[in-house]
Amino acid sequence: MGRSLKKGAFVDYHLLEKLDVQNKAGTKKPIKTWSRRSMIIPEMIGHTFEVHNGRKFLSVFVTENMVGHYLGEFSPTRLFKGHPIKK
User: Fold this and answer.
1) pTM of the prediction?
2) Angstrom distance (rounded) from CA 53 to CA 65
3) CB contact at 8 A, 43 and 9
4) Is the pLDDT of residue 2 over 90?
5) CA distance readout (Å), 67 to 9, 41, 57, 78, 87
6) Dist CA 69 CA 79 (whole Å)
7) 17 Cβ partners below 8 Å, 6+ apart?
8) Most buried one in 62, 64, 78, 86, CB count within 10 A?
């Protein structure tokens, strides 16, 4: 079930602070985060996030089409190696 519209999008406070600092400075360095639950908002477009998947950090470049999705959706936690071949 989705989040209520009256509550707005959830973004971790520490992630918003890092984003504001970079927007004011005009830099685009990757932002390392463990916050997979944070929703992508329009202020994040053009930034790169390194999202933790439980084992390593995967780079996620935010585009316009990603707004409204969560950061964790773009950092898969499981590796699908294919179905076994029957002999």
Assistant:
1) 0.84
2) 21
3) no
4) no
5) 10, 5, 21, 23, 45
6) 21
7) none
8) 62
